[in-house]
Amino acid sequence: MTAPAIVLGSSQSERDLDSARVRAAGVDVVRRRSGGGAVLLTPGAHVWLDVWLPRADPSWVDDVGRAGDWLADVWVAAAAAIGVEDPRPHRGRLETSPWSALVCFTGLGPGEVTSGSRKLVGVSQRRTRDWARFQCLVHRRWDAAGTFALLATPGATAAGDQWRDRVADVGDAGIGAAFRAALDRVT
């Protein structure tokens, strides 16, 4: 990745964005086919991993609300391996906020991971009859202000200030390599 991009979830529209601010910031707008809110990606500031699971895999679960439990366990092991404090899988219903339809990481879904009271791993899921794809994101550096500044919604800038400390950063601690190692151990 060489330029910043804001990735919209499948239910979002470019009308959710302030197009003048997006252009002025030099941010590309792209879409993903899975759900969730927008994610601002900037070079070097995140780790995004797609995990494909075929239906025949022993980890497959038909219940969408529990389908990512195994993946959350992998992320917890990876986070613990790099020294993240108190990583925990979220098992339960979707927890929304007034901003979660617009901005990823402002809600908490099944199979996602927290560190203390802060969200660590975001996951969106796309499924067919034959496979599931889990799109996972961990922030090396969460840019709440930059993300919220691109929204067309009144009050977004103030909300960016409120959400600044609600997401855990992992820095450059090697979370991708830790995930691969944990995947081999946990599955």
Would you write up a description of this structure?
By secondary structure, the chain is of the alpha+beta class. 24% of the residues lie in helices and 24% in strands. The chain has five helices and eight strands; from the N terminus they run E-H-E-E-E-H-E-E-E-E-H-H-H. It has a five-stranded antiparallel sheet with strand order 4-8-7-6-5, covered by helices on one side. The two termini are 30 Å apart. 39% of the residues are buried. The mean pLDDT is 94.
Features:
single chain, 187 residues, alpha+beta, BirA Bifunctional Protein, domain 2, 3-stranded mixed sheet, 8 strands
| Percent helix range | 10-25%
Radius of gyration, whole Å: 16 Å
* Count of distinct strands: 8
Query: Would you tell me the structural class of the helices and strands?
Result: alpha+beta
Helices, by number, come to 5
Question: What is the CATH first-level class name?
Answer: Alpha Beta
CATH architectural category: 2-Layer Sandwich
Ordered list of secondary-structure elements with their pairings:
Blueprint: E1 5-8, H1 19-24, E2 28-31, E3 39-41, E4 46-54, H2 69-81, E5 87-89, E6 113-115, E7 118-127, E8 131-139, H3 144-149, H4 156-163, H5 175-186
Helix pairs in contact: 2-5
Question: What is the structure about, briefly put?
Answer:
The chain is an alpha+beta fold. The chain contains five helices and eight strands.
